[in-house]
Amino acid sequence: MTAVPLPVVTERLLLRAWAPGDVDDIHAYRSLDDVTRYLMFDPQPRERIAELVTERAGRTRVEADGDVVHLAVEHEGRVVGDLTLKWSSLENAQAEIGWIFHPDVQGLGFARESAAALVDVAFDLLGAHRVWAQLDPRNHRSARLAAALGMRQEAHLREESWFRGEWGDLAIWALLAHERP
Predict the structure, then answer these.
(1) CATH assignment of 2-134, among 2.40.50.100, 3.40.630.30, 2.60.120.200, 1.20.120.640
(2) DSSP 60-108
(3) Which of 18, 109, 124, 146 has the fewest CB within 10 Å, making it most exposed?
(4) Model-level pTM?
């Protein structure tokens, strides 16, 4: 495989590797209950974000199953969200996409713009056959984003995992290369 060619530039955004100066911006949204409500982690303290930035800063290559590319989404010099692309199977050309954004930018189309650019990278530059996302079906914003990317819901797994003190459902959304809008 290969490195993701960075930065990825969209009309309004810059997708790039995480950098040490991003800690405060990333902490500003990853520390919020509303942001982590449907995620597999609780609000994160600044110290944990600093560790994550150090761990993820160079993760921009796909070379083996399980490799994860971590990208900061920057708007006007501020990180407003982050994206992940996890290569779940090189042999089967399967990649999982994920997104997290600051509530201040919700509704501005930044998530769609940046995620669509990463989907394009996955298909056009990395040779993905299928890009998929997993999300809590109660997360209506993420479901709308998946649909806006051209994904279809493939599965709704009932009580799939123990999540925040209760059994939680899981929705799987996906898009095949030849189905792209």
Answers:
(1) 3.40.630.30
(2) -EE-STT-EEEEEEEETTEEEEEEEEEEEETTTTEEEEEEEE-GGGTTT
(3) 124
(4) 0.95
